[in-house]
Design brief:
423 residues, alpha/beta, Rossmann fold, Ribosomal Protein S5, domain 2, 2 domains, nine-stranded mixed sheet, binds thymidine-5'-diphosphate, binds magnesium ion
Length: 423
């Protein structure tokens, strides 16, 4: 059951109506070429990886939702970003979870310089907007939306109605004042933002902070962005001194071992606007279950089943009595079809228990007819691999560069059987 506000009779609606900017008296139709764009320049968030995910920085007056599991580092990244911004602009950190001392101590422990940095511990949204209006910060953080409530509703903070209503008020406030707002939202166990996705359509950008809780790596991903591309990936490492930006993620995602092992292949994936080398691992083992298992971590299950069928049909390699496990090293998710070739290579390598040739990068899409299809941005992927010392690349014929590639042999394949022969 979701509690709804009756807009007509609550007196408190009138109180906060100064923020309802939708049906105001001054609304009028404007020609597109007359729209004033002077206010749009972006400001840096102080962290280039965060800027990258935002599509080039924070847009004034925009509202960004930062989602993620508790303890993943949402407060940390925003604190680091705000401290950096506070050197040039005024910022306000509203916390409903931590005390002023906790936040300040963390900033000090991380050695963050603070300039014009204000703090507020408050959980009532009306109070927050009133205080923020007096403070007039350039950028404001609300940590977290689950602790915020509005006096218009009787229900407890954290509920769907409270989360939605408080967020709506904050969004209106940001739009009308031009204050850039970053809102933290905890994700529930099933992966949905608590107050199930009710916030996603209200805000301008939704970022997810993810990663293994015990691992060091943290990935920041945009799932919605009104001002830039989605699927852009920012990479951070959690250290004793807070989050460190990882400028060269390829180096981290390749696992380091001395001798080549069976069941592992390196591919070049494309994340947003940059290539990244990741390692795909497969383990194929005799199945004792009536239904052989196909388990994928960081890859699409359905796709594995499909590729195994193609493998059987077009290369005569049967896996119906085998369990197949696949994993992308480093907790990365690869949802691109360009992983097909590398995945198949690692499956065959594990099945035959023979490592693939070293220093080889493989990418390409496999079609149902056993054909190998080109993928976007082939050149950039090859360049990234060459940069990391790869000597050989197996790619779709259509991705083969017209000119020879310096320092790397590029082999084009167009059919599944040809590819299997080759590896
Ligand atoms: P936090 O930003 O408080 O998480 P969230 O706001 O998403 O709930 O991050 C907390 C975790 O990060 C905590 O478990 C410890 C770890 N951490 C470090 O390892 N190093 C650090 O310098 C900081 C500040 C936190
Ligand atoms: Mg926190």
């Amino acid at each position: 059951m979701v509690e709804q506000v009756d807009a007509k009779k609550t007196s408190s609606t009138a109180k906060s109506s100064r923020f309802t900017g939708y049906a105001g008296q001054d609304s009028k139709v404007v020609k597109m070429d007359k729209v004033d764009l002077s206010e749009l320049p972006r400001m840096s968030s102080g962290l280039s990886e965060l800027d990258r995910v935002l599509g080039g920085g924070l847009v004034p007056g925009s509202v960004v939702l930062m989602g993620g599991d508790p303890g993943i580092g949402k407060s940390t990244i925003l604190l680091q970003s705000l401290c950096k911004i506070s050197e040039t602009d005024s910022v306000l950190y509203v916390t409903g979870e931590e005390s002023l001392q906790q936040v300040t101590m963390r900033a000090q422990r991380l050695g963050l310089a603070t300039g014009d940095f204000s703090l507020l511990t408050e959980t009532q949204v009306e109070q927050i907007t009133t205080q923020a209006l007096m403070q007039k910060p350039k950028v404001m953080v609300v940590d977290s939306i689950q602790t915020i409530y509005t006096e218009m509703l009787q229900s407890a903070p954290g509920g769907v109605a409270q989360v939605r209503e408080s967020a709506a008020q904050l969004v209106r406030f940001a739009k009308q004042t031009g204050i850039t707002l970053l809102v933290v939202g905890h994700v529930t166990k099933d992966g949905a933002l608590a107050g199930p996705r009710v916030l996603e359509h209200m805000v301008d950008a939704v970022l997810y902070f993810e990663g293994e809780r015990d691992g060091r790596l943290r990935l920041l991903r945009a799932v919605k962005n009104r001002f830039g591309a989605v699927n852009e990936l920012g990479v951070f490492a959690m250290t004793d001194e807070g989050l460190k930006q990882v400028k060269n993620p390829s180096a981290i995602f390749l696992s380091k071992y001395q001798d080549p092992v069976a069941g592992s292949a390196v591919m070049a994936t494309w994340e947003g606007t940059r290539p990244m080398l990741v390692e795909i691992q497969a383990l194929v083992d005799t199945s004792h279950a009536p239904q052989p298992r196909r388990i994928a971590v960081g890859l699409d299950h359905q796709r594995i089943a499909m590729l195994l069928a193609v493998l059987n049909r077009h290369a005569g390699i049967a896996t119906y009595d085998q369990d197949v496990f696949a994993n992308v090293v480093g907790g990365v998710r690869v949802m691109e079809t360009s992983s097909d070739l590398a995945l198949v290579a690692s499956i065959i390598s594990s099945l035959r228990n023979r490592p693939l040739e070293e220093h080889t990068v493989i990418f390409g899409e496999i079609g149902l007819a056993g054909e190998i299809r080109p993928v976007p941005n082939g050149q950039e992927r090859l360049k990234e691999a060459a940069k990391h010392g790869f000597k050989r690349a197996i790619v779709p014929e259509g991705n083969k560069p017209p000119k020879p590639f310096d320092g790397m042999e590029v082999i084009g394949v167009s059919r599944m059987d040809q590819f299997i022969q080759l590896i």
